[in-house]
Automatic annotation (TrEMBL):
Organism of derivation: Salinicoccus halodurans
Keywords: Ion channel, Ion transport, Membrane, Transmembrane, Transmembrane helix, Transport
BP GO terms, sorted: monoatomic ion transmembrane transport
Protein name per Swiss-Prot or TrEMBL: Potassium channel LctB
Keyword DNA-binding assigned: no
Transmembrane segments: 37-61, 107-127
Domain Potassium channel: 47-126
Amino acid sequence: MARALLALFIIFFLFQLGAFAKKKGEMQNTHNFTLHWPLYLYIFTVMLSLTLGFAIIYYIASFGSPILIDSNQGKIVQNHNFAEMIYYSGATLLSIGYGDLNPLGAVRYISLFEGFLGIVTPTVIFVSEITKNNSAG
């Protein structure tokens, strides 16, 4: 099961790289500081890919031992499901931080990195697009 999920993640990641290469060429011709829909769609796709990618990592990590504490009940979550991992990954990536689920062990550092990517990734994409448009105009 873990290998199948990892294989799906790798295929999805490679697909996203191909879409990025294609979209990068299209965005160069599309934007003239108006920031049309393709840029926002691209940012959404990248963020969704990161959310799903980290959810898979968390889900695979949960096979060995519990990785989250439910702060509302004060208990370690024993049975993780993939939907819960998507929720946790999305809340972490978007820096929402509800506080209902807290990571344990090494997952804390993975979560820190995901939170960092959640702030830096859309910022870098957006700023690089604006900088490119300003230098072209």
